[in-house]
Amino acid sequence: MRLAGLYACAAVAAALPILFPDNYFVTVVGISAGIRVILAVGLNLLMGYAGQISLGHAAFFGMGAYASAILTTRHAWPALLAMAAGLAVVGASAWLLARPILRLRGHYLAMATLGFGIIVHVVMVQATRWTGGPDGLAGIPPLNLLGWSVDTDLRWYGVVMAATLLAVWLSLNLADSQVGRALRAVHGSEFAARMLGIDTGRAKTRIFVVSALFAAFAGSLFAHQQGFVSPDSFNLIVSVELVTMVVLGGMASTFGAACGAIALTLLHEGLVVFEDYEMLIHGALLMAVMIFLPQGLFVGLSQATRRLWRAARRGG
Amino acid sequence: MSAIAASSPSPAPLLAVEALEQSFGGVMALAGVSFQVPAGLIYAVIGPNGAGKTTLFNALCGFYAPSSGSIRFDGHELRGLPTHAIAALGISRTFQNLQLFFNMTVLENVMVGCHLRAKTGLLAAALRLPQVRREERRLREWARETLALCELADRAEQPAGTLPYGLMKRIEIARALAARPRLLLLDEPAAGLNDTETLALRELIARIRATGVTVLLVEHHMPLVMSVSDRLLVLDYGSVLAEGTPADIQADPRVVAAYLGGAVHYAV
Amino acid sequence: MLDQLLQFLVTGITVGSTYALVGLGFALIYNASDVVNFAQGEFVMLGAMTAIALLAAGLPLPLAAGVATLLTVLVGLLLERFAIEPALGAPVVTTIIITIGAAIFLRGVAMLLWGKDFHSLPAFSGTTPIQLGGATLLPQSLWVLGLTVLLVTLVRAFLNRTLLGKALLACSFNRAAAQLVGINVRVMLRLAYGLSAGLGALAGILIAPITFSSYEAGVMLGLKGFSAAIVGGIGNPMGAVVGGLLLGVLESLGAGLLSSGYKDAIAFVFVLMVLFFEPTGLFGHKVAERV
Amino acid sequence: MPSERPLLEVLGLSSHYGPVRAIHQADLRIQPGELVAIVGGNGAGKTTLLRTLSGLHPASDGCVRFAGHDITRWPPHRIVAAGICQVPEGRQVFAPFSVEDNLRLGAWRQRRDRDWTRREQERIYSLFPLLAERRRQLAGTLSGGQQQMLAIGRALLGRPRLLLLDEPSMGLAPLLVEEIFRVIVELNSQGVTILLVEQNARAALAIAGRGYVLETGRIAKTAPAAELLADDAVRRAYLGY
Fold this sequence. Notes:
The complex is a heterotetramer.
Chain A: H1 4-19, H2 24-49, H3 57-73, H4 79-102, H5 106-126, H6 128-131, E1 137-138, E2 144-145, E3 148-149, H7 153-175, H8 178-188, H9 190-195, H10 200-226, E4 228-229, H11 236-249, H12 254-271, H13 278-292, H14 297-315
Antiparallel strand pairs in A: 1-4, 2-3
Helix pairs in contact in A: 1-7, 2-7, 2-8, 2-10, 2-11, 2-12, 3-4, 3-5, 3-10, 4-10, 8-10, 11-12
Chain B: E1 15-24, E2 27-37, E3 42-46, H1 53-60, E4 68-73, E5 76-77, H2 83-89, E6 91-93, H3 106-113, H4 122-127, H5 130-149, H6 165-178, E7 183-187, H7 195-210, E8 214-218, H8 222-228, E9 231-236, E10 239-244, H9 246-250, H10 253-260
Parallel strand pairs in B: 3-8, 3-9, 6-7, 7-8
Antiparallel strand pairs in B: 1-2, 1-4, 4-5, 9-10
Helix pairs in contact in B: 3-5, 3-6, 5-6
Chain C: H1 2-33, H2 40-56, H3 61-84, H4 92-114, E1 130-132, E2 135-137, H5 139-161, H6 163-173, H7 175-180, H8 185-211, H9 218-231, H10 237-257, H11 263-277
Antiparallel strand pairs in C: 1-2
């Protein structure tokens, strides 16, 4: 019962390619949406549950991707090992960064995480010897799971969906445990949380690391799936989009963050039609949602419909 | 030594505050406060606005770093300890301004209160290992028991933010109790309550004491304080004005003057 | 070597002046509303791009600059009225996202109007470099320096010498008390947004002949301005000015002595260090009381 | 019999802080020229009442009428313009500004009338000679009593028809309290209508003509001050015994 939502998602993910076989849209958009869901769900643990903003999450995403790219193309590591190494590096960096950065609050935290994201991005562009500079790195091999090479769109669809469901499952478990409650307590009132014996500094640090690991995992998948990485995929705009997904979903809800990620992916696909208007619409939408539905698109809309429904019933 | 010294009075006080001073940028909020709270009592701290009552609580909890003096709790010096470590020693509190976790249900709020008894690791929780499920069940039971003690059992699944104010204050008490403290600090529990709720609060405080928890109470509602406390400490301008039983305090003219202010006379 | 250092210093101060003006705008808005306006960089871009467009349309430079500044002020006022006021008192994350949304929106508008190409404004008075010891100085740099000094002096005088300026500061010291003496805080809010939009636009117009401008030009400038404000102690207008100059010089020195590609990274490493070790900014306390 | 229409009339006013009801169905009436005291213990809702009257805090129910206008939903700056000036609890002077600047900001609504402002400022200096010596000093560096004088002066420069004072005695030494109260009496005798909120009930009732006793957000009693001074209701409101 607890995981009913997860099973439903799994069913939909499995049914889509059967209902629409060989459909480019389903697989490619599905893959892209899945990777974003992993990112959003991970960031939601930090932002939605623990209440700590990060405007630099694309950095961890990129570090995971580049670790895979560099280790496989330059050092011929197997893909899975490269992924594991990437996770280790990102985990360690996040842990080192967490203490000093999470002492900051509000705008200061926003500025610091944003600065971190920019620094990492500059390194990606400038450290040409390792990263290939602005042109990026090509020729990243696909994942190879015990001899099964993930080299078609459909196989990738399957792997990314499995990874996405895994991420959602982990996030649901965390949220619905004492760890998750402690994080929400930190968000609700740090005073009260400490008074109940929660070491708030430690709790924040650990969830920052977990959140970074989700991003690095998504990054590694992204690198192997695309076969190519360049700094453009990990810039400030991407960090802002990640925050947008979480906020759009309504914060502190795993499925909300996932829906936010899917909605933004579809919006991107849809806005392609408008080409030059994409930015304008994206910006206007962000402002409108935050002004009119501050609890997020999904929570806000469901509350609004409930209100309308009640009003209609009273009227009738 | 004595762990949960219930009603039998132990010779060593549970809490001993010695010459505690707290200054903020030159302003003395606490100017050498000393008092002792024996285990098992309901001990109230009263005084006019700005007398330093909440400052005292915040110093006890490690929110402020006192300028000098000592706070000993059951043989441990509390000064310099971080708040969560103080909580782990067995002190819990409620807040003057509600610090409820409004985004959680009543039960979840109280389950956070059980945090000190939870041993779940991050990884185990993420994978939802069997021991996590067992612990969840244990914490839930514990929380439900505490809710029952506070007569909140039927509200368990409601979001805490949607309840009336009086119940919210009660949830905060339940949450603090869930930590199984030996000393419970209540910061103005009656503020904003109506008469019926205040009466129920008095019973609840008495029930809490009966479970062996020592209660330190800051409160303005004098009828409540006078009827429920065993001893009182009166603070004024950050110093101790008087200490004693409710009867002693009511007979003390200095207390009346501190509250009503000295008369100022001149021709009008 | 010494000549080179002098050159870096000159370049740094020129760029830093722009950061200072943008940072000053940040500080003014933060003071008035506790909002960090992530669209501040877009004011800079709008000022520059509008001036370029007006010039191309045949207006003389001074008039184009003036009209561009006024139009940007109008955008600032509209932003305040329709995006900030409705969300007053909202959590920090909400206001951050609203202003980021506004920034993306303005960028989108600029792209539609002027495309993705880089544009440039002609230098105000020629491009013959001036020799200064061993360093060369563009005449435009003199314009930037001179007008920055003028603008900062004017803003400072406005805040310290006029009652209106004091009323604006009063709102940030103690909003309730400001309301109790009858100050309309919404009017002050609009004043702050208008003022900082104007400062941003002027910064953009001043720097456009040196750095080129495009619809994206505001992103980095805005962030550097924000950094300047943080380095100087957010909410302290003159601290932001000093922070901007410091950032510009540091960046230019880093670019010259270490690597030009890393200049943005150097700036943000500096900001992170300041945040980690002096979270209230370098001048968070001391200057705040003097302003 | 009713000689004049009241200057301030509060009917059924309620006010909440989040879920907490701070003021419940309060009724008040103040005639021009009166000095009225509101006394009550900690947390009785005195400060909330004044904040609601000044428009800093929204009323959840009821209405406030002032000089013929319904000002219940007016923003604070309009209420000040109408003539209600408040000396807030804890002084709230603009600490980084000089004494002089604080006073000039107090005259914000009158800023175009420079002569009046200058004259009025001099009057404040003569009322509080201590402030005159410290014109250029930063307000944040003044002592508590001096800050209180400055806060009163600042409010007076708003040209009040009704002056609201929130706990002017709080945290002040008895001698200073006496000084502040002397000024309050003097102001009232010059014709300023005053609503004085005090925890120091004896001092407040000693100078007020009439008093209200506020108890947990409700008006528990109203009577001539002398009568209240002798009444046990006041003592009960504070001490509950």
